[in-house]
Write a structure and sequence with these properties.
The structure holds 2 protein chains of 2 kinds. Chain A is α+β, with helices and mostly antiparallel strands. Chain A has 2 helices and 8 strands, in the order βββαββββαβ. Chain A has a domain of about 90 residues: Ribosomal protein L16/L10 (Aldehyde Oxidoreductase, domain 3), CATH 3.90.1170. Helix content of chain A is about 20%, strand content about 30%. The mean pLDDT of chain A is about 90. Chain B contains 4 helices and 14 strands. In chain B, the strands form 3 sheets. In chain B, strands 1-3-2-6-5-4 form a 6-stranded mixed beta barrel. Chain B has a 4-stranded mixed sheet with strand order 10-7-9-12, with no helix packed on it. The chains are: A alpha+beta, B alpha+beta. Chains A and B meet through β1 of A and β7, β8 and β14 of B.
Chain lengths: ~140, ~240
């Protein structure tokens, strides 16, 4: 089941604007290798799940996968063939806000080549251009 | 510990500071940096970007900074990276005395093939990637090696078990876990389809409903009068 918050303060949110670059979550913190996003936009819960499944299938219970993004923004959508008006529509899905530099997934406990292949598969599931990054040492 | 040669780096003082001039510097293959500490005035300098990248790649902490005709030993205190983590934006260099004891973060490198990793689904999780240590400026190790060869599943190495080089101490709790071996939990595949109307709980919704119910029950007569009032407006 795709990710979504357990409790929220308000059911619906305004769309908002995405600007700037990632000033946090922009480095590999938990694993050894990561997948860094190079674009700006929304990443839906289904896309996150697709990426996670792709990596899990490839790694075959080897290593550990960290998902660094969480879809906490409800996205509303009006049903098809509905007239405009009558208030805001019901939430359709959940999305995470992603900015250039955000690390989306991390992998630990596998060799560099294996991690690269796994994250390449994940990158294909992402709606953005992504790149493979390694942990920067202190 | 054998005395190592301190890498030298040539810097130029930069008379103009600010983001515009810093951007110009970066375009010209240089980096803005600042030298401060030891109760002297801070000096704004420009460093060669490639040289700095190479030094930091080698985990260099101590530098011999050559400014004009003089030189002073400096410690790389902070490095500012861009949002993608690929380019250096700014470097902080702190003046040090070569006989001074300083606190620096040193990278922890795991060595040896752990016994526990031979089991299916086992992986090693490094929880502590760098260790803050106290040592003489001239004796800062490039990295600290942690042997994990003996580790079995669900075992861990703590800070207390690390063999620190001579003259190097740490204030980190000896019980802090550096690395541990875990088994990846098998993913439980749920066949049940997600509920159509599954939604998260709204905070405070139940409380509001409860309060409304109480309000409606208490002033029953008054409520009736209030209901009558809007009818007048409707007729108008």
């Amino acid at each position: 089941m795709p990710l979504m918050p357990k409790r929220v303060k308000f059911r619906k949110q305004q769309r908002g604007k995405l600007r700037g670059v990632a000033t946090r979550c922009n480095y590999v913190a938990f694993g050894e290798y990561g997948l860094q996003c190079m674009d700006i936009g929304w990443l839906t819960a289904r896309q996150i799940e697709a990426g996670r499944v792709a990596a899990t299938h490839f790694l075959q219970r080897e290593g550990k996968i960290y998902v660094r993004v969480f879809p906490d923004k409800p996205i509303s959508k009006k049903p098809l063939e509905t007239r405009m008006g009558t208030g805001k529509a019901e939430p359709e899905y959940w999305a995470a806000r992603v900015k250039p530099g955000t690390v989306l997934f991390e992998i630990a406990g596998v060799a560099s080549e294996v991690a690269k292949q796994a994250l390449s598969r994940v990158a294909h599931k992402m709606p953005f251009k992504c790149r493979f990054v390694e942990r920067r040492h202190a | 510990m054998a005395k190592r040669e301190i890498p030298k780096i040539k810097v130029e003082p930069r008379p103009r500071i600010g983001s515009r001039y810093a951007t110009r510097l970066r375009k010209g293959g240089q980096l803005p940096a600042v030298i401060y500490g030891h109760k002297k005035d801070p000096v704004h300098v420009a460093v060669n970007e490639e040289e700095m990248h190479e030094l930091l790649h080698r985990n260099t902490h101590l530098l011999e900074v050559m400014i004009d005709s003089r030189s002073e030993p400096c410690l790389v205190r902070d490095v500012q990276w861009d949002h993608m983590g690929s380019e250096i934006l700014h470097v902080d260099l702190a003046r040090v005395d070569l006989n001074e004891r300083v606190t620096v973060e040193v990278e922890l490198v795991l060595t040896g093939d752990a016994v526990g990793l031979k089991e299916v689904g086992a992986f090693i999780e490094q929880q502590l990637k760098a260790l803050p240590v106290q040592c003489l400026v001239t004796e800062i190790p490039d990295n600290i090696k942690v042997d994990v060869g003996h580790l079995k599943v669900d075992e861990s190495v703590t800070v207390g078990q690390i063999k620190l080089p001579e003259g190097v101490t740490t204030k980190t709790s000896p019980d802090a876990i550096v690395a541990a071996i875990h088994i990846v939990k098998e993913e439980i595949v749920e066949v049940v389809a997600p509920e159509a109307g599954s939604e998260p709980e709204v905070i405070g919704k139940k409380l509001e409903e409860g309060a409304e119910g109480e309000a409606a029950a208490a002033p029953a007569a008054g409520g009736a009068k209030k209901e009558a009032a809007p009818k007048k407006d409707d007729k108008k």
